[in-house]
Amino acid sequence: MLSRHLDPIVAIATAPGRGAVGIVRASGKDLTALVDTLCGRSLKAREATYLPFLAADGQAIDQGLALLFPAPHSYTGETVLELQAHGGPVVLQLLLARCLEVGNGLGLRLAEPGEFTQRAFMNGKLDLAQAEAVSDLIDASTEAAARSASRALGGAMSAEVGELRDALIKLRMLVEATLDFPEEEIDFLQQADALGQLARLMSRLDAVLDRTRQGALLREGIKVVLAGQPNVGKSSLLNALAGAELAIVTAIPGTTRDKVSQTIQIEGVPLHVIDTAGLRDAHDEVERIGVARSWDAIADADVILFLRDLTRIGEAAYDADDQAIALRIGQGSRVLQVFNKADAVPGLALPDGALSLSAKTSAGIADLRQRLLQQVGWHATPEGVYIARQRHVSALQRTREHLDLAQDMATLPVPALDLLAEELRLAHDALGEITGAFTPDDLLGEIFSRFCIGK
């Protein structure tokens, strides 16, 4: 896709299906021939003109609005033509085919997914973080995610990364100057307060990293798996969390044979809740497959709700099976012990950090929702968060690692300035990946290929 970025492109820019209005969008260096032939006249810049869109025989394909955005004052930075017609699929396909027919001599071709936004990035209209925010805004599944994506598109994240970059460049310049002019005998680390600058930079980076993690949670959500023995109330808990009867609930152990998934939101954070088959030695082949899938889901979870039945605590066989499950799940930070059926056995002592609730009466469900957010480190209010991706988090983490190594080099008895300069350079490169300053072409292709066609 990157090798053909000079071709003029065209695509239907509105969603598939019927609608009141449909848009065909074209972008290229010179669309004069397309405008003159399709519209039968020239167009004033950024002014909507109502006219017929002409077929090859001079008949009107449709009547609609034409808008011309000459370069560089357009979304892509190239000249952009938008044809707003009635939103029927046949009409839009006819209009698209006519554009390709007229533009054949210009090399006009169908746009690939995300190519309009890719051109905006390549022409300096958006940086990479803002370009990704366009896709995130379209794909947002909650109001909080949509508002946060809008902040990222407006440059909130890019501005913070830019401040970090400027501080890092300043520090790099001081180090490089000391390496270039050793005869000056400047005590770099003390007189330039290099260690102080580095410490302040790392502190600001930590704050940005924390906000970025919150933004990634808003975009990616949390994968929560309900795990435990059969008939402990996993399906009832899924229904209680979702506020709807999504899973079949009976007193028969093994009712759930396969995963049942539902996405809910808590404070704008998407939770992908997965109800799994009860964990036991199954004799039925279908149930055995379901149990194997349960363990696969547990391995891939962000949070595991290990559900126990308070009414069966003390039964030798039940306790032994629970212990075996606990050993296999482990006791890591992603495991949350939950004791169900508190309405039947109130006041029972629980292990530290465990929760008791009743999926039947919904008592304790509100506490569980808050614990789920705490479990993954959510502490922000959606109004102050910009959307982010795991790639951004990884880039900031690598930046922090290189700054840690730089600090080590700077605090040696004899500071290793050449190694310090190299770590600062690597930190700068990692930071630049967020906005696209140091991003490989194959990563750009992967990012933009996930967009919808026409955007």
TrEMBL record:
**Which cofactors does it use?**
K(+)
Q: Where in the cell is it found?
A: Cytoplasm
The family line of this record is: Belongs to the TRAFAC class TrmE-Era-EngA-EngB-Septin-like GTPase superfamily. TrmE GTPase family.
**Function text:** Exhibits a very high intrinsic GTPase hydrolysis rate. Involved in the addition of a carboxymethylaminomethyl (cmnm) group at the wobble position (U34) of certain tRNAs, forming tRNA-cmnm(5)s(2)U34.
Name the positions where Mg(2+) binds: S235, T256
> Where primarily located?
cytoplasm
- What are its GO cellular component terms? cytosol
| SUBUNIT field | Homodimer. Heterotetramer of two MnmE and two MnmG subunits.
> What does the record give under GO molecular function?
GTP binding; GTPase activity; metal ion binding
| Keyword Iron listed | no
GO biological process terms, semicolon-separated: tRNA methylation; tRNA wobble uridine modification
- Keywords for the protein's UniProt record, in alphabetical order: Cytoplasm, GTP-binding, Hydrolase, Magnesium, Metal-binding, Nucleotide-binding, Potassium, tRNA processing
Q: How is the cofactor bound?
A: Binds 1 potassium ion per subunit.
Catalytic EC class? hydrolase
Pfam families associated with the record: MMR_HSR1, MnmE_helical, TrmE_N
Q: Which residues bind K(+)?
A: N231, T250, I252, T255
What residue stretches are annotated with the TrmE-type G domain? 221-377
- Its Enzyme Commission number? 3.6.-.-
Q: Per the UniProt entry, what species is this protein from, by scientific name?
A: Roseateles toxinivorans
Name of the gene this protein is made from: mnmE
PANTHER family associated with the record: TRNA MODIFICATION GTPASE GTPBP3 (PTHR42714), TRNA MODIFICATION GTPASE GTPBP3, MITOCHONDRIAL (PTHR42714:SF2)
Domain of life, source organism: Bacteria
| Protein name (database record) | tRNA modification GTPase MnmE
